[in-house]
Model the fold of this input.
Amino acid sequence: MDSKSVMLLIKEGEGLTAEFKEKYSPKIDEDIVAFANTKGGVILLGVCDNGTVTGEQLTNELKGRLNSIARNCKPSIPINITRVDCVVAVEVPEGVEKPYYCSSGYFRRLEGCTQKMNHEEIRIMFTDNDIMPFEEKTVKEFSYNDVSGEKIGAFTKEAKINFEPLSAIDFLKSLNVAKKEQIKNAGILFFAKDVQKYIPQAQMSLLAFKGTKKLLIFDRLDVRDDLLSQFNTAIFFLKKHLNVRSEIKGVNREDIYEIPLEALREAVVNAIMHRDYSIKGTSLMIEIFDDRIEITNPGGLPKGLTQGLFGKVSVRRNELIADLFYRLDKVERVGMGIQQMKEAMVKAGLKEPVFETDEFFRAVFFRPKKEELFDTGEKTSQKTSQKTSQKILAMMRENKEISSLQISESLGISERAVKYHIEALKKKGLLKRIGPDKGGRWEVNESHG
Done:
């Protein structure tokens, strides 16, 4: 680890393989275990979360503490500790004896966070971990001469990263998509001049049909380019074929699409991140019908993830690809995408999306009928919100000690959404909390209810 590498890590910010700590804490064992259980990484001591460098001294005492912590993990984890300029870099390799744990439990990296794992995540994430994922493999014929400087520039611009004056090689290594003189498939999928030449199955087909069946195609676009281009082209194609209305809010005009764009963006990026790129002769499909939109990616659910756990446990088939989309700010943290897609649709007064899986994974979004087309805006959203609030009040009348988590599980919405409704009810004088969060109770103002 040298000065250039550290500076680039700080510019890029925290991610799958980078964690910043303003100062040493014994809880650093959680981050060490998380990196060993995922793709390895570097912990920088003396750097704040926002990238501000405060500095850290590498004393013999600190070095001894860090080595002792790593040895006490089970199995023990070899680490490399160096002082680079004014920060301390703790390099953690990806483990070969997964899963690892420390006194606080099992941890892993998920985008830019260290997350504690539950039993199901441990079982799923480390099933057959000795098999190298497709994104980690390399193509023998691919070299650094096949990397597109323009695509690196487009990525860094969108991710707001300034990697100059470092070379493209150093930049790709810092993202963990290159090793020594080879580019991993994840790097090829994002930065190759000609992705199709080396990974021909990495393509996307965008189709718009007339009617509700796959009979008459009136618009088609096949995308055989990098994954960021695929994402941007897919969103453009969807916007082109969705109905839209405009509302004036203050002095600004806001375009409102018949299906919330945030839900479709989440579905598209999920499909790109989670598709199985090892399956040849396949394509990611986005199909637009008069009554629905279907987004289908090859691969089905990741191995070990059951239908019952879907949407509750976050599993990344492609950790590196997911991290790159996280850096582009295209993906939610801690795997909340499925729930947020459902909430966005319900909030717009539409049916929840349907998710189907076999050898493929399919997300289906239902379009409003023509007579409902302009009634899916604010009025419908308000009606849906009022119904949810009424349900919450009814549950609190029946059980005054009910928790927001219990309400969330009962209604099938996130706990964050429940808390939003509770705060709104309090402001309207419809609800009051008696006592502390734990051990207290709810009181519904019946004179308003």
User: Anything to note?
Assistant: The first helix runs from residue 3 to 12. The CA atoms of residues 90 and 106 lie 19 Å apart. The mean pLDDT is 86. DSSP finds 15 helices and 18 strands in the chain.
